[in-house]
Amino acid sequence: MSTQRSTWMNWPSSLPESAPAPAATSPRPPAAPPPRAPAAPAQPAAQQPRAPLPPAAPTARAPVTPNPSLGRPATPPNAFNVPAHQSNNAVLADLARQARAARGELQAAQEAFARRALGLYETLRIVDDSLVQLGTHVLGNSVIAAAWFSSRNHHLNQRSPLEVLMVGDREAVVNELMRLEHGVY
């Protein structure tokens, strides 16, 4: 049985079969597997080796296509040999942990904001909101209450309740709403 070596780059070879084949001088693309040499029938031990053939004309090689990944592997290596669904689950678990931590921080900030002292403008907005709620309760709905706040009133010296509020006489507007609630016109 003879040792068969690859004759891909140096066919025909003038080296005896026991000598190592010279290394290929041209690099081949990393993605392409080396071409396989056709299987030669085994020579019986009694036959003489063939005479070397004259060198053949060099064959044209296919042009090397550029690697689209710019020298990196086409797919990222999975360094930890973890299945993709398990690594996705790990990412999702990490995101959920971060969301829980952020939710706790947000809740603490909201509680601190609610406990702080209100500024004058914020106090006036709350007072006006409570007055609008009172007007909505007394008059039935917010549309009627909005019309009442902007219309002139006989008991407020022909001024609208909004004008009276701008002057700063909130108590007169509250008294007028209480009169309406109790049915005193």
UniProtKB/TrEMBL annotation:
<dbReference type="InterPro" id="IPR024467">
    <property type="entry name" value="Xre/MbcA/ParS-like_toxin-bd"/>
</dbReference>
<feature type="compositionally biased region" description="Low complexity">
    <location>
        <begin position="12"/>
        <end position="26"/>
    </location>
</feature>
<protein>
    <submittedName>
        <fullName>Uncharacterized protein DUF2384</fullName>
    </submittedName>
</protein>
<feature type="region of interest" description="Disordered">
    <location>
        <begin position="1"/>
        <end position="84"/>
    </location>
</feature>
<feature type="compositionally biased region" description="Polar residues">
    <location>
        <begin position="1"/>
        <end position="11"/>
    </location>
</feature>
<feature type="compositionally biased region" description="Low complexity">
    <location>
        <begin position="39"/>
        <end position="50"/>
    </location>
</feature>
<feature type="domain" description="Antitoxin Xre/MbcA/ParS-like toxin-binding">
    <location>
        <begin position="135"/>
        <end position="183"/>
    </location>
</feature>
<feature type="compositionally biased region" description="Pro residues">
    <location>
        <begin position="27"/>
        <end position="38"/>
    </location>
</feature>
<dbReference type="Pfam" id="PF09722">
    <property type="entry name" value="Xre_MbcA_ParS_C"/>
</dbReference>
